[in-house]
Amino acid sequence: MITIVRSILAGIAVSLALYGQAQNIDLKTWPEKANPITVGRLVAQRFVESPHNSFKPPAPPRSITYPEVCTWYGALKFADISNDKVLLEQLTQRFMPLFDTEKHLVPRPWHVDFAVFGTVPLELYQQTQNKTFREMGMRFADAQWSLPIDSPQTVKNAYQKLLDKGLTWQTRYWIDDMYMITMVQSKAFQVTRERKYIDRAAHEMLVYLDTIQKENGLFYHAPDAPFFWGRGNGWMAAGMSELLSSLPIDNANRPAILASYKKMMASLKKYQRKDGLWGQLIDKPESWVETSGSAMFTYALITGVRNGWLDAKEYTPIARKAWLALVDYINEQGDISNVCEGTNRKDDYQYYLDRKQKTGDMHGQAPILWCVNALLKK
Question: Under a CB-based contact definition with an 8 Å cutoff, are residues 310 and 244 in contact?
Answer without folding.
Answer: no
